[in-house]
Design goal:
Blueprint: H1 3-7, H2 22-30, H3 35-43, H4 51-66, E1 69-79, H5 104-115, E2 121-126, H6 135-145, E3 151-155, H7 161-169, E4 172-176, H8 184-190, H9 199-203, H10 205-211, E5 216-219, H11 228-245, E6 250-254, H12 273-286, E7 291-294, H13 300-306, E8 313-315, H14 342-351, E9 355-357
Parallel strand pairs: 1-2, 1-8, 1-9, 2-3, 3-4, 4-5, 5-6, 6-7, 7-8
Helix pairs in contact: 3-11, 3-12, 4-12, 5-6
The structure holds iron/sulfur cluster.
Length: 362
């Protein structure tokens, strides 16, 4: 049974959020509950009145599971061609802007510029166009920058299992693949055409990554596209299902929130700062051992405040356009809110009594 089949079972039904009360929130905060039982309680409106107590518990869990460390990584955009029409993204094929993909020399220069900041974990990204960035191109890019970084991860279009296996054999350490929206009706509306319109294929991609024995898989839903409680609860089921079916793979979660971009699309279901905090605290308490990533989509003061409350990984010094590190950049996939350098983010982490980590394995 794939996760697609699992998701249609009664156990994955959307909870009645209003039925949770203060007593249940207190019981979850006292500990000992199963992750999937705790998560809806912590996402509920009732838990929204308990953020301070949740923050204390999340802080304890973060220290217990991870110590006082934050891993830093940077993204490198290889290409901005895309065959999809996601309504919420600047790379949408219908947005008219000059598209490009980096040459071999440009990839090396961009990689060197990132490596010079001290970052050793690199996320390579493309828009979702196999025609313009095939697996051979992705493999070439990995080969070109492999010696500059300790860890190479990918965020590209969904691949076949054998393709993930090929890349894993060549040193691929992790894959990020967001479902964006778990609700199939909302998904269809937001992805009206292109390969990404295939909801099931996208939903089953993390399974293919796990079967290919890639070390880490990072999943998520784009906050702002649909009711966040529903989406985070679906995501929790996805995490749990992957953990149970692929215990050798490290599953982690990102909490990206929709930002402005070319072709600006207003968030259909905006998520406030307070709600984002509740989401992060809920993840840390319900899944104490899971890695949680927060990107430069969020502004500096918010990111700083969340250090110690559950986040384990921050992007730093990011550029979200192709060629952005060497001054030849173009259209950004989305607008960033935290424009600080790697050095500034490193210092912020130190000032808060934490240790910035550039390499978490060798
Ligand atoms: S979200 Fe991804 S697939 Fe959709 S338009 Fe943007 S780059 Fe393309």
């Amino acid at each position: 049974m794939s996760f697609f089949d699992y998701l249609s079972q009664p156990g994955c039904a959307v909870p009645d959020w209003e039925r949770f009360d203060q007593r249940q929130v207190e019981a979850v905060l006292a500990g000992g509950q199963d992750s999937l039982a705790a998560m809806p309680v912590l996402l509920s409106p009732a838990a929204g009145d308990w953020l301070e107590a949740m923050a204390q518990r999340a802080s304890q869990e973060t220290a217990r599971q991870f110590g006082r460390v934050i891993l830093l990584y940077s993204p490198l955009y290889l290409a901005d061609y895309c065959d999809n029409v996601c309504l919420y993204c600047g790379f949408n094929v219908k947005n008219p802007f000059p598209r490009r993909r980096l040459s071999a020399e440009e990839i090396v220069r961009e990689g060197q510029a990132i490596a010079a900041t001290g970052v050793e974990h690199l996320l390579l990204l493309t828009g979702e166009s196999r025609r313009h960035a095939d697996v051979a191109y992705i493999l070439e890019a990995m080969t070109l920058v492999r010696d500059l970084f300790a860890s190479l991860c990918l965020e590209v279009y969904p691949l076949e299992e054998k393709e993930y296996r090929l890349l894993a054999d060549q040193g691929l350490d992790g894959v990020t693949i967001y479902q964006e929206v778990y609700d199939p009706v909302v998904y269809r509306h937001l992805h009206p055409a292109g390969p990404k319109a295939d909801y099931r294929r996208r939903l089953e991609t993390p399974e293919r990554v796990c079967r290919a024995r890639v070390r880490t898989v990072n999943i998520g839903a784009l906050l702002g596209l649909n009711d966040w409680r529903r989406e985070m609860n679906f995501l929790a089921h996805h995490v749990k299902w992957l953990q149970e079916n692929f215990p050798d793979t490290e599953i982690s979660v990102s909490v990206p929130r929709l930002q402005s971009h070319l072709g600006n699309f207003p968030a259909p279901a905006p998520v406030s700062d307070r709600e984002l905090v509740q989401i992060i605290l809920a993840w840390r308490i319900a899944f104490p051992w899971i890695g949680l990533t927060l990107s430069t989509r969020e502004r500096a003061s918010l990111r700083d405040g969340l250090v110690g409350l559950g986040i384990t990984k921050l992007s730093a010094g990011s550029r979200t356009d192709v060629g952005g590190y060497t001054g030849s950049g173009g259209t950004r996939q989305f607008d960033m809110a935290d424009h600080r350098s790697v050095a500034q983010i490193r210092q912020m982490i130190i000032n808060k009594g934490y240790q910035p980590i550039f390499r978490d394995w060798t």
